[in-house]
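Predict structure. Input: Transcriptional regulator, 194 residues.
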Amino acid sequence: MQKKSDIKKDLIKTVAKQLFSTKGYEGVTMKDVCEACQISRGGLYRYYDSPKEIMCEILTDDKTEMASMLEQAIEGNVPALQLLNYFLEMIRSDIQCKENRFSFVIHEFAFVEPTQSDYMEKRFESAVQILSRLLDYGKRTHEFKDFDTRILATHITLFRDSIITSSASLKFSDTLIDEQLNYIKESVIRHASK
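Output follows.
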């Protein structure tokens, strides 16, 4: 059973993530979080000292959840192609969703908080490792081609980060997004089908 303090922290993180998504990282203050959570400043500061601390914990939770979901899917023998399609649909959603732009906020956080560069580098490396795990799984099940997993995982992670960042200021057509995501699939899948 979850402790009361963990429940409160989860509420704060959920609400703060929504605030970051709509107002941007720099646009959120501790006062905003207090008001949105309907808790006192003292109540909030019992758990977090700053929006930066909340953001770091949200990012750590997201990374942990993604790795855990992948491990459970692999243990459950979910086809690698199904997992890849899910991953690519997450990218599509991040590009097309103009509200709740949390993926873009992550990049804003990296620019605004240069002292967090080590953390962001570790986060990037973790994303590459998680994607490498998926790609290796697909190679083992013979759903994916034989390729250098680390190079391709790094390339896809860089692609994801750059297209999401660019989508904040550029309008990408559905056709262009489809072409790019299909190109990734064709690079990975043993017998790609459109």
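The chain has one domain: 50-188.
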